[in-house]
Design goal:
Strand order of the largest sheet: 9-8-3-4-13-5-12
Low-confidence stretches: 1-13
CATH class: Mainly Beta
CATH superfamily: Acid Proteases
Distance between the termini: 17 Å
Order of helices and strands: EEEEEHEEHEEEHEEEH
Mean pLDDT: 82
Largest sheet: 7 strands, mixed
Strand content: 25-35%
Shape: globular
Number of domains: 1
Structural class: alpha+beta
CATH topology: Cathepsin D, subunit A, domain 1
Length: 181
Amino acid sequence: MTLMLCLSGLKGVLGSLIFGGYDNARMISNNVTFTQGPDTNYPFLASLQSISTSNTTELLDPSFKSSYIYIDSATPYLWLPKATCQNFERAFGLVWNETTEFYTMNSSLAQSFDNLSPSFVFKLADMKDEQAIEITLPAQAFNHELDARLVGETSSQRYFPLKRLPFGGQPTLGRVFLQEA
């Protein structure tokens, strides 16, 4: 495990604390390298080649293939274009709630999703047309519980942590991706 602590000056420069490391048993050897971008607000940018399920259903809309996507721990969600979100809707019966802006799952849909238990395969490269790596996430990574207070309900609901990208927004893979990858 890596532990790094950086504290710089007293003139408004924030300090940072980084815990790092990896589980060697989960490591798959590869030759793919990702470089950090120059934008300090969004330094982690990758070319998203595809998102598919374990049964090879392609979820990424063709118009978005090989587009760049930020990888950002500041958001818990996957922020993807509406057409891609609609592919998720069709594949898993997800329902977009316009009021709460969440993909909620009623109990029968949640049970169906649990029974199906798909794996999600994200194919990423550093730059377009470069060698890519496939990162597989289990269905459980996308099975979350939404506190009832957030949506004005009397009981909690299950939801899928996918968000429709607003016009002009930046596609992003958030913590739901990072925690499992």
